[in-house]
Design brief:
With 317 residues, the chain is α/β, with parallel strands linked by helices. It has one domain: Alpha-Beta Barrel (TIM Barrel). 41% of the residues lie in helices and 12% in strands. Helix 5 links the parallel strand 7 and strand 8. Helix 8 packs across helix 9 and helix 8 packs antiparallel against helix 11. The longest helix has 17 residues. It is globular. The mean pLDDT is 96. It comes from Hymenobacter aerilatus. GO terms for molecular function: oxidoreductase activity. InterPro entries: AKR, AKR_Detox_Biosynth, NAD(P)_OxRdtase_dom_sf, NADP_OxRdtase_dom.
């Protein structure tokens, strides 16, 4: 499968990243193992997690997803075959959070222990810590790279202004730079990324691995009414945000293009992201082997310029 370099990191990833926020939540350990086996078996090589997954579940503290991935890496002996991306910064079950230098250095040890590895390929600031100057986390990352504990760094949920400031600080002070951005981006949620962040990403040549590529499942086409929202645990999280004229127009365009290619709506929605300039690979999660096989077909689905225009026009904001 074609691999794309993430920024200038030297990390080459398949055009779809597996999101693991569901591991230890809606997918138990054995289900997660099957999903991981299927993903790698289909040619995927990048797995995205975070120390906070899944602290929102009653009784969880965070680290549940990393723990499952770590067990899988050891049992399957796949560490050298995959790119592991994890994150730090969001509030854990014990209330700890942020990007202070000492906290990052403490947190990476927890992630390394849970993942049962001695290095992390991509370590990401999960959200900006605006109480700190942008260079403080970069200083921590510089030390961790020097120690061989992380290979490259990325940012997620940053404003354009703070991302630009961090990238400039890296240049001015000789610090490691964020090689990737992980923003929310999909056919429905386009505005913030395209208007604010895309110019920064293109100016500095960093990779983009957007999350919520399927808009929490809405772009699979299975949620078309309020009644449909009761179909799954995630449906409740979608709420009524997407159930409006624009959302229905996007679904109609997805139906049209999917029918044209004998594909699923999910495959088309992900292929549209892959076709956007400056986008490296969307992130999508799965809770069954069948879902993995479905979304991985997006990597071999080539949309025509007319297909892309149909989807882009339908989702205009």
């Amino acid at each position: 499968m074609e691999k794309r370099e993430l920024g200038r990191s030297g990390l080459y990833i398949a055009p779809l990243v597996l999101g693991s926020n569901v591991f230890g939540w809606t997918a138990d350990e054995q289900t997660s193992f099957r999903v991981l086996d299927a993903f790698v078996g289909e040619g995927g090589n990048a797995i995205d997690t975070a120390n906070v997954y899944s602290a929102w579940v009653p009784g969880h503290q965070g680290g549940e997803s990393e723990t499952i991935i770590g067990k899988w890496l050891q049992q399957r002996h796949r560490r050298d075959d995959v790119i592991i991306a994890t994150k730090v910064g969001m509030q854990m079950g014990d209330g700890s959070k942020g990007l202070a230098k000492d906290y990052i250095k403490k947190s990476v040890e927890g992630s390394l222990r849970r993942l049962q590895t001695d290095y992390i390929d991509l370590y990401q600031s999960h959200q900006d810590d605006e109480t700190l100057p942008v260079e403080e986390p970069l200083q921590a990352y510089a030390e961790l790279i020097q120690e061989g504990k992380i290979r490259a760094i990325g940012a997620s949920n940053f404003s354009a202004e703070r991302l630009r400031a961090a990238l400039q600080a890296s240049t001015d002070q000789g610090l490691p730079r964020y090689e990737s951005l992980q923003p929310e981006y999909n056919l429905y949620d386009r505005t913030d990324f395209e208007k604010q962040l895309l110019p920064v990403v293109q100016e500095f040549g960093i990779g983009v691995i957007p999350y919520y590529g399927l808009a929490s499942g809405f772009l699979t086409g299975k949620y078309r009414s309020e009644e449909d929202l009761r179909k799954s645990q995630r449906g409740g999280g979608i709420g009524k945000k997407y159930l409006n004229d624009r959302g229905f127009k996007i679904l109609a365009a997805l139906d049209e293009v999917a029918d044209r290619h004998h594909a699923t709506q999910a495959q088309v929605a992900l292929a549209w992201i892959m076709a956007q300039p400056g986008l490296t690979a969307p992130i999508a999660s799965a809770t069954t082997v069948e879902q993995v096989r479905d979304i991985m077909k997006a990597t071999i689905l080539t949309l025509s310029p007319n297909d892309v225009k149909t989807l882009t026009d339908a989702s205009a904001y």
